[in-house]
Amino acid sequence: MNKNKFPPKSANSSTSSPAKSTIKPAKPASRGPVNRATAVDSKVAPARNANGSLKKEPFKNPNRRAIAAAKPVQSQTLAPIIVLFNKPFDVLCQFTDEQGRKTLKDYIPIADVYAAGRLDRDSEGLLLLTNDGQLQARLTEPKKKTFKTYWVQVEGVPTEDALTKLRQGVELNDGMTLPAKVKIMDSPDIGPRNPPVRERKNIPTTWLEIQIHEGRNRQVRRMTAHIGFPTLRLIRYKIGQWSLDNLPSGEHKCIRLGDEV
Length: 261
Description:
By secondary structure, the protein is an alpha+beta fold. It contains four helices and twelve strands.
């Protein structure tokens, strides 16, 4: 009986560790030549800038839609307003001036309003300002036929024939004017201009009420000069439904949603 607990060693066996297997794992099938400069592993290569640095991806919160839905939506639309301003003589219809002349900023402490039309520096009267673009366009568009009423002091006494020319339209250097509504009026109850109008003692003056719905540069002055009666003083009394009533020179009032503020 063999007392050995282990079976006898083979003749080819040795005391060294068993030999490693010589079988190599199969290589994956080649898909063509590989460019080592562009070879990447199974993971997607990170995006890089032109200088080789890694691009930073913007953080995307997966819950951004839910967060946005939870926030209350605030309207950015301002309530439409109209500012009525009785512009004095020698004031520019703008809020800034590099030459230091008087502007709307000296009289109107309201932000984000813009003039609907203009009034010459040497003219006086009603100027409308608004933050409503549609209203501004409607007031300045001739096709909308928003009539503007002017009180005009002219030198001399116009004849009826001369006034008829204005009612029919006159030829100015920028074309024919549309027919105007013209009539002689009494001197309006207004204060003196500062500085006063230069009147010639031997030539009388006449006040006219002229209504037009155009807005050419210095149009009324050119119209009266065309018929031979130059304008000495010009006051815009009314634009559409708004007028100078109860509004002293240099003062303004704000109207919102049809109610006076």
